[in-house]
Amino acid sequence: MSIPRLVLRASRKCSSMSTRTFSVQSVARNAAAEPTYKAPALGVNRTYDEALKVIAEDKAKRLVDIKKMEGTLAQLLKAAPSATKDAEIASLKEKIFKQEAFAEINDPEIQWRFKNGQIDMSKAVFRFMKNRQFQRETLPLVQQRITQMFVTPDLLPPFTPSLNVQMQYGSTGSNYFEIGSYLQPGMTIQEPKVSVLSFHPEQKYYTIALVDPDMPDVKNEAFKQQLHWLIANVPLSSTQMDVTKENADVVLPYLPPHPPKGTKYHRYTLLVAEQPNGGQDKVQIETSSVSRETTLGDLCAQYQLNVKGLTFFREVWDKDVRNIYENILQQPEPIYGKQPKVDELLDETGQKKKKYINL
C-alpha cells in the first residue's frame, strides 16, 4: 500500500508583538521557547483546502482498516500455537504499524513538527519517519565506514545495522564526533554518554560492549581484542534512548582507550547487541566468566547476543597514553616497534660472512 503523494508547503513568518514591557529574563525565555505550529487559514487557497479533504478521507479509510486488523490480531493471539502463528502475528503488527504511520504522514502539522524536531517517538508516524531518515542518511555512512576501515569482517561478520548508535565524550554537544573519526586519548579518559535510537515501541534488553580489535599479540605475531567496557541488560525502546548504569548491570567497568606507542591506529568500536528471545530475556554474565581478553565472538556465542548497531572512533598514541598507563592502569608503558631487518650477509656477531668456506 503506497503513501499518497501529497505535498503541502506553507511558509509563514511567525512574529508576534505585545504591548506589555518585557524584562531581559522574559525575552531570553521567549527566545529559547520552541516554535509553535500555526496552520494556514482555510478559505485562502482552494487547492490547499481540497488537499486537506483528501488527506482526511485517506486517514479515515486507514483507521477503519486498522480497526479490522486489530480485531484479527486479537483473535490470532488467542489461537492455539502453530508453526506459522508467530510469523503471522509479526506480519500483522507490521501492517498495522505502517497503516498508523501512513494515516498521519501527510498531515501538514506532522511534517512541520518533524522538520522542527518536535518528535514524539511514541507515535507510529514519527518512528516511521525517523527510521526512513536513518535508512537514507545515516545507514549508508555507517556501512561505508565499517567496510572501508575493515571493522567488518575484522571484528564481526558483515551485517546491516538497524539501530542508530551515538557516543559523546564530555558534557557539551560540540564533542559529538562522526563515525570513524580520530579522537585524542586525553578526551576519552572518562566514560562516554551513549544514546541508541531504536524504532520499536516495546522495551527490549541489550548488551553494550566497547572493543579494541587492534591490540598487539606479540606471542602469536598478530592482533588480539581488548574489552574496554561491558554492560548487560540495558533497557531500550523508541522513547528510552539513553544508556545509564543505574538500570543496567556493569560487568566490566570502563577502561580508557590507550593505544600503545609504536602501533598504528586502533578502532575502538561500541557495539549494541540484542539479548535472547528478541531482546525479551535478561542475561546473567558473571564477572568471573569474562575478562579484558574475552573476544566479541565468544561473548555473542555464549550469551546468544545479536549485534544490531555500532559506532567507532580511532586513536593513535600521544603523550597522554603514558599518563593513562602510569596513573590508571598502574603498569609500565609498553613500546612496540618493527622487527629489525635481517641481513643475510652478516653473521650472528654482525661481521660480514665469508664468501667461501673450507669444507
Automatic annotation (TrEMBL):
CDD domains attached to this UniProt entry: PEBP_euk
Pfam families, per database record: PBP
Name of this protein: PEBP-like protein
Species in which this protein is naturally found: Mortierella polycephala
Lineage, highest ranks first: Eukaryota, Fungi, Fungi incertae sedis, Mucoromycota, Mortierellomycotina
